[in-house]
Amino acid sequence: MDDIFYRLPKAFIFVTLLVSAEAAWTPCSSTPNVSPKPGDPALPSLPPSFQTRIEANILDANYSLSAVEYVDDENNRAALRMWRNGIESDVYFDYDNNQIFSVVENTCTVSNLTGDANTVIFGGGGAAGGIPHVYSTAGVLHFAKELGETYMGSATLVRGLKANHWQTCMYWPVVRANFTLDYYFSVPGWNNSAGTPSVPLRAEVTGVYTIVNGVTQQFHHIYDYIDFRTTPPDDPSVYETPAGISCPGRKKVRDMPKLKSKYYYREEIISPGGQQIQQADVWYDFDWQLLRYDSRPLDISPPYNNLNPYTEIHDYNTGVAYAMDKLIKNCTIMPIENGTWDSAYNSSRQFLHMRSPASLFFLDDSYAYSGQRKARGIDCDVYTSTRSDFSDGLNVFEMYFLREDWSAMDNIGFDTDTPDIPIRLTITGAGDFGFTVIYELYDFDQETPDIQTAFDISNCYNDLEKIDFRITFPSKAGNLLAEYRTIFIDQAILLIASLSGGLSPLRITHTEVHWDDNNVYMVGTLLDKAPPIAKYIKSPSKVAPFKNAQTLQGVTDPYSCAEQCDSVDTFTCNSFDICAGKQVCTLSKDYNSDGAKLSDSLECDHYTRVVGGRVDKEIALNDAWIVLTDQVVKGTFQVTLNLDDGSKQVLKGSDITSDVLRNPNRVASKTALQHFSGQANKQVNGFDDLILTQVSVDDCANECLGEIIFTCQSFEYCYDTGYCIMSHTHPDERPDLIIASDHCDLYTRSYMAKFTETPGTTVLSSSDTIYQNINSDNQCARLCVDYNEFDCKSFDYCPNINTCFLGKKHVFDVPKSNIKEDPQCNHYSRNYADDFKLKAHKEIALRDNRVIEGVSAEQCAKMCVEEESFSCASFDYCGNMTECRLSDAAMSDVGQVTIQASTFCEVYIRSYYPDGSVYTKPTASGYSSGAMGGLGFAMLVLGALLAVGIYVAIGKYQGKSLDSMTISFKNMENSD
Ligand SMILES: *[C@@H]1O[C@H](CO)[C@@H](O)[C@H](O)[C@H]1NC(C)=O
Ligand SMILES: *[C@@H]1O[C@H](CO)[C@@H](O)[C@H](O)[C@H]1NC(C)=O
Ligand SMILES: *[C@@H]1O[C@H](CO)[C@@H](O)[C@H](O)[C@H]1NC(C)=O
């Protein structure tokens, strides 16, 4: 009897039936289909859903229990919570799947709904056949008309309330029981909390049942229904088995989702006991055997030694961990620890391996479906397992997966929607351990993590341990890479990694791909191998005796011994002992991770390989470089792209160079920007007179200014490789050739800096040189600078008629009457001081070739430039007496020039010719205006007309007869 009681704690009616009572009972006869007498009140009709409190008084056994019952007909669910003698028993009815879960003291048992005694109170039962469902309240309360009820009057008081009373005489075949059932309902007209005309108040059962043939027992119990309401709670958790409890044998509505082999997620690790949240990011790639974990240390301990956020990358190809401080950006290369959460021992506990996609979350067959619950307001399918492999003692694991009818639009990668998304994992220590850890999982994306950004260990290597390279693939298929860029890079990395017996894919980093019409370029950085010592876990003061496959003398430190172990060819060395004092290094084929097998030693240390399986003999940086270049040169470096349409595109590397500069400063200095105007991510097709490599953007600008073979009018600076591509063509002439570039910036020679603008003004000068169809003041400035029929000192530019007038005279040199207002045009006069570098509070001692007084610094600069009797290389300008001292002293005159401090003077050192090329002091005497490109322009010579008059003429004929005289820029031929 005790046994039965134990097994069925949930079934209080049934339980009470098992207990005999002394009270006398007169059997009644079952009265099926009795017809109500005329005038009897009709049965109350009740809503299908309700909640009520129940007090059950089991008179024959001297106890009471209380209960709450929820019936939600709309959602086809119900639950019952009971308290008896301080113990709670809960019953959950899963009508969809015909099962009942009863939970007593954190233990859940599953039974069939059909035929279960609990259905007696909730209705149903096997007799009806088919899948049972929640019965109406009338059914639930066994107010079943088919059993026949007799109205017994309304005078009765229940708890002081006036009640209608019905009686039924029943036979219950399951336990062969005969009993009377008395029902009491509140009389209509008596208001109640539910707001319905009549609510049940009480049921009373009195009867006898058969234990075994011939042995009967009597019973008597009273159920009081209190606080009957027609609105069951909405909260789904009321109807679901509680979190942290698994119900073995529960039917699976959905097989537990399987995780893919690659994923990324972000998590919050919540420790309610510790009142703490820890955040972490995880990138996981089982195929590539890589894992990255970003977090913040909980305490100060090696390798971090501070509380800065860190990135830790585990490479299970080699057993090496890269620990990086995200703020200081330093790195420690070390073995993967044996206690790390992402690793597991092999069965004989000798070496580590990476946990599989599922086992990272401890997912396996032991999980039972636990129904649907909400996590963060999201509907989830929950799977539960009780297991002992997480900590000492039993723990309940609950994994929440996004319900199948939900979708998650992630913001990562190609796939818009990741199915089977884990939402939450909770781990609860069962029994006395009582702790809870909640892993809230966010942004779960089951795609290949971007190896480039996710697994970047380049901070762990210095510049000598890296080779930057660029591989050229002659191919016109570059545009395909707009779509297949990541795939191409991944393929190329895998290809490089597979060369020469295998490099870890981590060693190919910072890869980029770009292309032009004829080539695809891959730029990347090759890293050195990890130090061999980082592949072995140290057991200090231990040795593995009698395990010597090879003994090496004269080895003094563990690094060299590890190097030996890692590179030995004749066998696979999996552990070694190093006895530094004796200078003995002993290599062994065995793993000896289990410290118990090792002997103590005063002067030796034992090291054992972190990972098992195939051991890749990683080659060092220079060897890897040789192998890679060899493959490219031989034409065997081929990347195959499998396209969506089923076709293949093979890209064959033709050329490889390490002549690149990675991550140079992309931002040009102010000085460079004085001479060039920059356009980010632009390039010009076919503008490549000269290519320099491994230079900075400022060096490129200087090279362009100093170029003497051709006049460098523009350059492209490729900030991924440090390539500097110079051209004699000015992009303003061919704006149509400018295209977007994903790796280069375009710098166009700017001539405007050489002029000072006076807006709304023209200056009459005796020049007849006029250009039409000039699109910008910069173009006009360039014409002025490059003009060599006379020394162009200024120009007027009228944007409304796209016309450019070159001037022979500087604004300093014309009479005031020649300066006119003209709102449509602007005047520009040459700055000379900009061609000089200024050193304040200095003067050049005793080298004055000519001294002029009463001029401005700008005028002084002009005089220096125009000086013909000697090559003026610098001047002093002393502000207190407006004195200008021209000098042929150049800074290159090493040893002959003394610069000394001065309170009022400044030294201007000549740096550029008027055409912008770099000033070099001529060795012979005589003035050179620098390299002038031949002007490929036709010129419109209209004779000595006043500029004002020309405006009128052009305005009048614009678009008509003057068209025949239209001048346009054309590509200058390269000339010297
Ligand atoms: C429940 O009933 C089904 C048949 O209806 C039977 O196959 C199953 O074994 C039963 N389960 C339990 C726990 O009694
Ligand atoms: C119940 O009543 C039936 C007749 O209606 C009778 O045959 C049976 O013996 C009774 N059982 C008990 C336990 O009194
Ligand atoms: C970074 O440098 C600090 C200070 O030298 C050191 O304590 C710490 O261990 C280093 N961190 C890593 C991850 O190497």
Automatic annotation (TrEMBL):
<feature type="region of interest" description="Disordered">
    <location>
        <begin position="27"/>
        <end position="46"/>
    </location>
</feature>
<feature type="domain" description="Apple">
    <location>
        <begin position="825"/>
        <end position="912"/>
    </location>
</feature>
<dbReference type="Pfam" id="PF25898">
    <property type="entry name" value="LolA_2nd_metazoa"/>
</dbReference>
<keyword id="KW-0812">Transmembrane</keyword>
<feature type="transmembrane region" description="Helical">
    <location>
        <begin position="931"/>
        <end position="954"/>
    </location>
</feature>
<feature type="domain" description="Apple">
    <location>
        <begin position="668"/>
        <end position="751"/>
    </location>
</feature>
<dbReference type="Pfam" id="PF00024">
    <property type="entry name" value="PAN_1"/>
</dbReference>
<keyword id="KW-0472">Membrane</keyword>
<keyword id="KW-1133">Transmembrane helix</keyword>
<protein>
    <recommendedName>
        <fullName>Apple domain-containing protein</fullName>
    </recommendedName>
</protein>
<feature type="signal peptide">
    <location>
        <begin position="1"/>
        <end position="23"/>
    </location>
</feature>
<dbReference type="InterPro" id="IPR058831">
    <property type="entry name" value="LolA-like_dom_2nd"/>
</dbReference>
<dbReference type="InterPro" id="IPR003609">
    <property type="entry name" value="Pan_app"/>
</dbReference>
<keyword id="KW-0732">Signal</keyword>
